Amino acid sequence: MLNLKLLATKDDLKEATMIEQRRRFEGDRKKRIFNARERIIGVDKEALDQQITEKQKLAQEQAEKERKFLAEQERVNAIALEKERQLMMEKRRIFNEINDFRNKFQRPEDRREFDLYDPQGKRKDLPARLSDGDPRLTVSSAQKFEGEDLASMERKKAQIDQQKAWLEQQMKEKKEAEEFRKKAEEEQHEALIAREQRTLELQRTERQGKQKMLAAITQFNKELAFEQENRRKIHSQQEQEDNLAEQLNHITSDILTEAPHAEKSNFGPHRIVPYTYRRMTTHQIDELKNGQISQLHERQQIRSEKESVEKEWESLSENVSRAMSLIERDEIRKRRHQIMRIRQENQELAGEQNRIRHHIEKNVYTNEPTEAYYQMFNTTSR
Question: Please, are residues 270 and 284 in contact by the beta-carbon 8 Å criterion?
Fold first, then answer.
């Protein structure tokens, strides 16, 4: 017998596996969907509540375990830290004891070979040459040579004496300079005193001159004031005379006397001088009244013409309104006829639709669905 598995490829096996998996999934889905009990009654709520309670209880127990574990872990950590601290203190104590023992009994200067690496060894040794008479200064010592300055001490002493003489000379010169400075200051002070006295004398002379000048200025001001007073009196008298003359001129002028010839202007007979004009003449008043009467007649004529025009416009507007009302009535009548026609057409269309619906219900839709028709549905979960 031929084994089909040997002929199937890897893709075929994979596809067959997928098909089988879809079939199982579809079967499980049908069980869930077509289960009338679960669809109508629903799931077991008490069981679900019990499961939730159990889960919560387990969660609480797990949380309690974790809390205890953390507490135990903290306690163990604290113990470990304390042990570590004690160990470090013990190590530090041992290290300090070792250092104390070394400082007391194993010092470097107590060793036999300390002189070989003593850091202060060079300071403790004698210098290579203490003086020129040092017995260690042999030929092979290479410390004393011919031509050296052996009289350096005497030379330094002579230099010190010379510096001392120089200092004494400088002190003497400084003292002389100080005396010269003091003498110069005294002379300068005397010169300042003399100059101040001269300044005071000049100020006194200047003050006397100013006093004389002020006296002369005061006398001059008095004379000038007297002269100005005389001028003021003369000017006041002249001003009074001018005022009297001006008053007389005003009294006798054309303005106050109202002379008729004073109103006429030199620029034309129809023009007048504004500041001399007083009133209108009788002839001028009559001309003004006649002009007003003529203006009144003209205004009345214009008003009558305006009223006639307004009456014509009113009659025209009435005629237009009457024509518009007739047109509107005609439009309303036409609209009413149109509505009646549309209503009749709608009634005819409604009757036609009723006949068509009756034909469809009685003649077209005559087949009734059988039980086999309903069996075609709900056969799959899709």
Answer: no
Residue 208 lies in a domain: no
> Who's near 380: CB < 8 A, 6+ residues apart?
26, 30
Do 61 and 53 contact (CB within 8 A), yes or no? no
Domain that holds residue 77: 50-84
For residue range 70-121, what is the model confidence (pLDDT) as tens digits?
A: 999 899 999 999 999 999 999 999 999 999 998 888 888 888 888 888 888 7
pTM of the model: 0.24
User: Do residues 26 and 382 lie in contact, with contact meaning Cβ atoms separated by under 8 Å?
Assistant: no
**Residue position matching structure tokens 């007083």:** 278
Q: Of 146, 121, 155, which Cα lies nearest the Cα of 137?
A: 146
Q: How far apart are CA 227 and CA 219, in angstroms?
A: 13
111: its two tokens = 């060793």
Total structural domains within the chain: 1
Please state the separation of Cα 223 from the chain's center in Å. Answer: 78
- Tokens at residue 126, please? 């004698």
The two structure tokens encoding residue 346: 């709608």
Q: DSSP of 125-153, one letter per residue?
A: SPPS-S-TT-TT--GGG----TT--TTHH
